[in-house]
């Protein structure tokens, strides 16, 4: 592990966001802002202290787990950081100070900050160039000067410091909107390295939408296609799309022959690169002999979940002259979706105009597609 500690300032109330919860507990994608911030720093920090809003310490501790120290934050951000410094073990030479509100700052950004500390810099802050021209104004709103835009940076967190220097900078009890300013005020050099758009500070609900699109970019999407076909066999019951179809001729097969369910399983296995129906439930796995389509869907769902995927959506198109699906489409969607943990499912049907595949009326086929998401 590195010689690096981290303090995450999360004690703000999120007034501008306007929610009933503190901002750190707002959900973005699959977890809260504070959990995102912890996930980004955990790979490089050997200790993490979170400054929590008063009254929410326990809730945050339960979210982040017992390895992380949670303390009560202060009235201002700088007070919160001071509470965080006081709770550090002091064993680490370096410290990163981060805002929970910059929930999507990447681990790579934190690594870049740490790398500059390890090279001997004592204060590093990520920053971005300005897009707009900036003006200084007086109390009456008249411009007093136009700073050269090229020399300006808008700064972000995590900011990295030599711990002793950060302690000294905070010892005066002064307030500043970032820790870099306090270190600068006691005469140390502060280096700016390249920041990143995704480290934006989530301040309003609109920022949450921007952050969500970033999250989409960092997720891994995987698609897969699956096909299955079975021939009719007199005397068998028909199972299709998870439903029993009385008065219809069934199909041959060592299972219930549900081509729609089987095609979906294959599409899911394909997307997750987890083999196929045969390799997962084939004849060498006698426990699956005669298993229903719904059972196989549930097992498949478990396998893709264990591999870290969730389903964005699944579609299946049934190809055959009969049965007529229309009147039972919603029932089929509900059954398949329930087997897949509530995933979005579409069910379509078509014939092939008397040609090819099942057009001769000798069986039923299905083609399915699946889109899986793996969180980055
Ligand atoms: N923060 C803190 N202690 C405070 C105030 C702010 O730890 N007394 C933290 C916030 O939780 C946030 C970061 O400092 O992660 C940056 O502050 P900001 O984005 O302004 O968040 P809030 O203060 O919560 O929002 P607002 O100003 O809209 O109330
Ligand atoms: Mg604030």
UniProtKB/TrEMBL annotation:
Gene: ispDF
Enzyme Commission designation: 2.7.7.60, 4.6.1.12
Region (2-C-methyl-D-erythritol 4-phosphate cytidylyltransferase): 1-222
Record region (2-C-methyl-D-erythritol 2,4-cyclodiphosphate synthase): 222-376
Entry superkingdom: Bacteria
NCBIfam families assigned: ispD, ispF
One of the Pfam families matching this protein, by short name: IspD
Positions annotated to bind 4-CDP-2-C-methyl-D-erythritol 2-phosphate: 228-230, 254-255, 276-278, 350-353
Site (Transition state stabilizer): 16, 23, 254, 351
Catalytic activity of the protein: 2-C-methyl-D-erythritol 4-phosphate + CTP + H(+) = 4-CDP-2-C-methyl-D-erythritol + diphosphate; 4-CDP-2-C-methyl-D-erythritol 2-phosphate = 2-C-methyl-D-erythritol 2,4-cyclic diphosphate + CMP
Site (Positions MEP for the nucleophilic attack): 149, 201
Function: Bifunctional enzyme that catalyzes the formation of 4-diphosphocytidyl-2-C-methyl-D-erythritol from CTP and 2-C-methyl-D-erythritol 4-phosphate (MEP) (IspD), and catalyzes the conversion of 4-diphosphocytidyl-2-C-methyl-D-erythritol 2-phosphate (CDP-ME2P) to 2-C-methyl-D-erythritol 2,4-cyclodiphosphate (ME-CPP) with a corresponding release of cytidine 5-monophosphate (CMP) (IspF).
BP GO terms, sorted: isopentenyl diphosphate biosynthetic process, methylerythritol 4-phosphate pathway; terpenoid biosynthetic process
The protein, known as: Bifunctional enzyme IspD/IspF
Annotated positions binding a divalent metal cation: 228, 230, 262
Residue intervals passing through the bilayer: none
Family label: Belongs to the IspD/TarI cytidylyltransferase family. IspD subfamily.
């Amino acid at each position: 592990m590195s010689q690096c500690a981290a303090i995450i300032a999360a004690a703000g109330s999120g007034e501008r966001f306007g929610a009933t919860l503190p901002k750190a507990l707002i959900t973005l994608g699959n977890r809260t802002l504070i959990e995102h911030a912890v996930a980004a720093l955990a790979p490089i920090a050997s200790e993490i202290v979170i400054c929590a809003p008063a009254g929410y310490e326990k809730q945050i501790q339960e979210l982040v787990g017992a390895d992380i120290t949670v303390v009560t934050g202060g009235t201002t951000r700088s007070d919160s950081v001071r509470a965080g410094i006081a709770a550090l073990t002091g064993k680490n030479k370096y410290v990163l100070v981060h805002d929970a509100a910059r929930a999507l700052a990447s681990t790579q950004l934190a690594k870049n900050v740490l790398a500059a500390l390890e090279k001997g810099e004592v204060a590093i802050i990520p920053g971005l160039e300005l897009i707009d021209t900036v003006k200084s104004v007086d109390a009456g709103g008249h411009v007093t000067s136009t700073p050269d835009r090229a020399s300006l940076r808008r700064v972000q967190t995590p900011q990295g410091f030599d711990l002793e220097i950060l302690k000294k900078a905070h010892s005066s009890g002064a307030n500043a909107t970032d820790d870099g300013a306090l270190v600068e005020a006691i005469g140390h050099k502060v280096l700016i390295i390249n920041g990143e758009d995704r480290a934006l500070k989530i301040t309003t609900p609109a920022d949450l939408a921007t952050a969500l699109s970033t999250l989409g970019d960092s997720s891994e999407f995987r698609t897969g296609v699956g096909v299955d076909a079975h021939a009719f066999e007199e005397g068998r019951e028909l199972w299709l799309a998870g439903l029993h179809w009385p008065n219809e001729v069934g199909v041959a097969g060592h299972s219930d022959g549900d081509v729609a369910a089987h095609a979906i399983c294959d599409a899911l296995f394909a997307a997750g690169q987890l083999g196929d129906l045969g390799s997962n439930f084939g004849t060498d796995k006698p426990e699956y002999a005669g298993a229903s389509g719904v059972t196989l869907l549930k097992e498949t769902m478990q396998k893709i979940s264990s591999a870290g995927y969730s389903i964005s959506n699944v579609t299946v198109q049934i190809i055959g002259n009969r049965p007529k699906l229309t009147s039972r489409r919603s029932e089929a969607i509900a059954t398949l979706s329930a087997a897949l943990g509530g995933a979005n499912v579409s069910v379509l049907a078509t014939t092939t105009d008397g040609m090819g595949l099942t057009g001769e009326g000798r069986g039923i086929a299905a083609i399915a597609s699946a889109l899986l998401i793996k969180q980055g």
